[in-house]
Design brief:
Blueprint: E1 3-5, E2 14-18, H1 20-32, E3 37-41, E4 45-47, E5 51-54, E6 61-65, E7 68-70, H2 76-79, E8 83-88, E9 91-96, E10 99-101, H3 105-113, E11 122-127, E12 130-135, E13 138-140, E14 147-150, E15 153-158, E16 161-163, E17 174-177, E18 179-185, E19 188-190, E20 196-198, E21 202-208, E22 211-212, E23 218-223, E24 232-243, E25 247-253, E26 261-275, E27 277-282, E28 300-313, E29 317-322, E30 329-341, E31 344-345, E32 347-351, E33 353-362
Parallel strand pairs: 1-3, 2-4, 3-6, 4-7, 5-8, 6-9, 7-10, 8-11, 9-12, 10-13, 11-14, 12-15, 13-16, 14-17, 15-18, 16-19, 17-20, 18-21, 19-22, 20-23, 21-24, 22-24, 23-25, 24-26, 25-27, 26-28, 27-29, 28-30, 29-32, 30-33
Antiparallel strand pairs: 30-31
């Protein structure tokens, strides 16, 4: 396999020399190779600005990172474009190993002060890509979302480690939108927003063996941003652990008109350890309580199963199913749930929900 080592084109692993052009040169040559090719980043620390790796390429590319990529310390240098490392229109790409550190602390500070800040960069993104493998990567301190998958298909994300402080704003671990056939397995996500967020148009998603926390849990949504919005369907979240998260598994929609939907979703075999809201459907989502639409959510939620979910809630209401008054949730199934609050049974809250329960369900069923 032809290998294109970024050092051959001038990259220096000293953490100070701008190696952006060297990375882009190595990519361009690999992308033109008719044989399967590798872009190789050896050990060392490489300072890079915005990297856009365009396809389509002539063959499969392996992007192997044995070193660490760091963003410039001035957050404006990557924050204006929206992306730090972007793979666009690439088919058959494998990214493995290494660490990327966006050094987002200065940017978060700007955001918290309400100053004049750039929009913020997502650390590593795949847009309009097919047949993607991302494995063994560590992402630290993203300005915005860590990993995004948009308008892509057949994506496998394995054993990634994602870390940012719990107070860092909008630092979703993995964000999926308008994509199908996405598998996320293994790995640890500790961040300031959703560990994983599935936004509009997410279809055929499988999530397993994820350790989430701190963070805001694994969410579908928020949905209902637009009237003509793609739905979310065929999602499974299984065999995962939530530790000290704001939410466990959540579906969230804004209370406004929408033709969106959520259907055929299974949350099963999950452990909650001191989670604020372990099980939640919130169709009156409005995170800061300002400018809430206060209408009725048009997003139709149906066919959602919560099964074999056990652990502890830090609030009395461990299960909150708050559905739209104009589009009641239907086909909600609760099976073998045991959630306690301060070593006692927790409570549940239901509104506009229809479904059934089976097995032992604690908190007491409110369907």
């Amino acid at each position: 396999m032809p290998s294109f080592n970024v050092q051959r084109y001038g990259a220096r692993g000293d953490g100070r020399t701008d190696s952006t052009k060297s990375f882009l040169t190595a990519w361009s040559l690999a992308c033109r190779s008719r044989a399967r090719a590798m872009v190789y980043i050896p050990r060392g620390t490489y300072l890079v600005r915005n990297l856009v790796f365009w396809g389509p390429c002539k063959s499969h590319i392996t992007f192997k990172i044995d070193g660490t990529l760091v963003a410039p310390s001035n957050y404006w240098s990557i924050g204006n474009s929206g992306y730090w490392i972007l793979f666009a229109k690439v088919n058959r790409i494998s990214v493995s190993g290494g660490t990327i550190d966006a050094r987002g602390a200065g940017y978060w500070s700007c955001r918290k002060k309400g100053g004049h800040c750039p929009q913020g960069a997502r650390s590593i993104s795949f847009s309009w890509c097919n047949n993607v493998r991302l494995s063994g990567l560590t992402s630290l301190n993203s300005q915005n979302m860590h990993v995004t998958v948009h308008h892509s298909s057949n994506v496998r994300i394995q054993n990634v480690r994602i870390r940012a402080p719990s107070g860092s704003p909008n630092t979703d671990g993995i964000h999926v939108q308008s994509s199908s056939g996405v598998t996320i397995s293994g790995g640890t996500i500790a961040t300031g927003d959703d560990c994983i967020a599935l936004s509009q148009g997410s279809r055929n998603i499988w999530i397993e063996r994820v350790n989430c926390g701190p963070g805001h849990g694994i969410s579908i949504g928020s949905l209902g941003d637009y009237v003509n919005e793609e739905g979310v369907q065929n999602v499974t979240v299984t065999s995962s652990v939530f530790t000290k998260t704001q939410n466990g598994v959540r579906i969230k929609t804004w209370a406004r008109p929408s033709r969106g939907f959520v259907r055929n979703v299974v949350f099963r075999n999950l452990i909650m350890r001191n989670v604020d809201n372990p099980v939640i459907i919130d169709q009156n989502y409005c995170p800061n309580g300002r400018g809430c639409p206060r209408q009725s959510s048009g997003v139709k939620i149906s066919g959602v199963t919560f099964a074999n979910i056990k652990g502890t809630s830090t609030t009395p209401i461990a299960m909150k199913l708050d559905c739209s008054r104009s589009n009641h949730c239907t086909g909600i199934r609760l099976q073998d749930i045991r959630l306690t609050y301060m070593r006692r049974s927790s409570a549940s809250y239901c509104r506009n929900v229809h479904g059934r329960r089976s097995g032992v369900v604690i908190p007491r069923n409110c369907l």
